[in-house]
Give the backbone structure.
Amino acid sequence: MGQHAGKEDGVNPSLTADTDTNRTNSVTKWNQVSVRCAKQLQNYSCTPPDGRKKKRHKMCRSLSEDDARTRETPPPSPGLLAKNILNVLITTTDIDRENRSNGCVQSRDSQSGQENVPHDVIPNNRSSENDVNVENNKNNAMDAQEGHTSAATCSETCSEGLSSQHPNATTDQNARLKENQKNEDKDKMEDNKENQATKKDGFVQLSGHDGAFAQGAQNTILKLQTKDGDTEARVYERLMQDGCREVVPAYYGEVFKDDKYYIELENLLTHFVGEVAVMDVKVGNRTFAEKEAINPKLRPDLYQKMVKVNPKAATEEEQKKQAITKVRYMTFREKESSTSAFSFRVEASKVPGGKTNKDLKTVRTWEQVLKTLGKFFKGHPAARDKIVDRLQHIREKFAASDFFQRHEIVGSSILMLYDVEDNAGAWMIDFAKTATLPDDVSVTHAVPWELGNHEDGYLTGLDNLIKAVKSCVVTTLEEEEEKVHFV
Ligand code: I3P
C-alpha cells in the first residue's frame, strides 16, 4: 500500500535494555504470528512473546504463519467502492472514457509563481534566511516530474541509440554513452523490480525505509515498527475510538512475524480498481520531534544526503566535519521544499504506468507545487474534485477531534489516491512521531513552531494543501488525447 513508512522514533520509556534482551530470547522461540486485534482486546489471554509485550499484550492470540485470515472489508468511505485486492493489481486498459469524461469538470483557476500565491494561503512565518540558491536542483526535480509519465518511451528511444558505440564518437563520448547505457539498464531493472514488487505484494510503497511494509491478510498490510517503539500502535488504538477514525486506515492490531513487530492496517488499495494513482504529502511545518531538535549527534550520512540535494548547502564548518545533526538536515529539507513556506510538501507520487517519483525534494514554490499536483491529477479533474471534498472533510474531523487536541502531529502524511474510474480518497497516515502533549501545553496546529511550544502547523498545512489541490490546473482526458493527436 502506498503508505509512507516513517521510521518510528518514539521510545517507550517503559522499555529497558533488559526487556529488549528478554524479548530477543523469547522471540526466537516464538515462531508464530501473534496478533492483537483492537476489537478483541477484551477477549484473549496468552503468553506474551517477551517482556515488552507483557505490559502491552494483556491479551492476544496466536496464529500459524499460513493461517490466511480474511478481514472483513472495512466500511467503505463515502463515495468509494470497496473492491477485492486482487482487482487492484489488474491494469484496467479498457477504460470507459465516455463515462469518465462525463464526470469531469473544467480546470479551475490556475496560480502561477510564488508571487501569485493566493492571499488566503496561510504562510508559515519561520525564518528562511538560510535559504540557498537551488535553481539547478529545482529544475532537475521539475524535469524529472515532466519526464514522469513518458520516461519509459524516452529511455527506450535513448537506449537504442546507446546500445552500440558510435563510430565517430571520441573515447570520452563512448565512455559516457556506455555509462548512460548502464544507468538506463539499471533504471529499467529497478522499474521491473518495482512493478514486480507491486504485483506480488499487493501494495505500493511510496516512501519510507526499505522493507517497511509486508503483505497482511487479504485486505490488510503490515507496517514495520522499530524494536524500541510502539507509539504508532498506541496512536492507532486511540484513533479507532476517536471522531477521526474514518479518516485514517482501519487498525487491526499488532502482529509479530518473522522476528519483527508490525501493525496491521487496512490496505487502502482495496477501495479502488485497476492501477491506482497515489501521492504522499507530508503535512505540518515541523518534520522532527522536539527531542531531535536538541540532539547534538553529528551524522555523516545526513551530510551526504544534504549535499546530494544541494552541493552548496554545507557551511565551511560542516564541510570540515563532513557531518551534520538531524535537526540541521530536517530543517534543510523543510527549506528546500514547500514545508517552510506552506507547511506541507509532496514526498512522492506514482501514477498508473509510471514509476514512483521521489525526486521531489526541491519542489518549493507555489508554482512548482501546483505543477506537481496538476501532473498527478492529469486527465482526472473529477478525481481531484472528490479529493478536495475529502480533504475538507478530514479538516473538519481533525479540528473536532479530541485526540488531535491533545497531541502534536509530526512527520505525518496524507495519502491521496484515485483510480481509472475516478474513485478517489485521502487518508491521514504515519503517526510514529505523534506525541501526547505535556499537561500544561495546548496547541493550535496553526502557528509557527518554537522549541517548547509543540506546535506542528498541521492545520496550516492542510488548509494550504486544500487550496493547492483546488487551484492546480488539471487537464481533462479529452485534452490529453488531443495533445497526443497533435504531437
Ligand atoms: C529522511 C526522512 C525521514 C527521517 C529520516 C530522514 O530524510 O526525513 O522521515 O526519518 O531520518 O533521513 P529524506 O526524506 O531526505 O530521506 P524519521 O521520520 O524517522 O525522522 P533518519 O535518517 O534518522 O532515519
Summary: Residues 1-116, 125-169, 195-200 have pLDDT under 50 and may be disordered. Residues 6-7, 9, 287, 305, 326, 333, 411 surround D-MYO-inositol-1,4,5-triphosphate (CB under 6 Å). The CA atoms of residues 89 and 202 lie 7 Å apart. The radius of gyration is 23 Å.
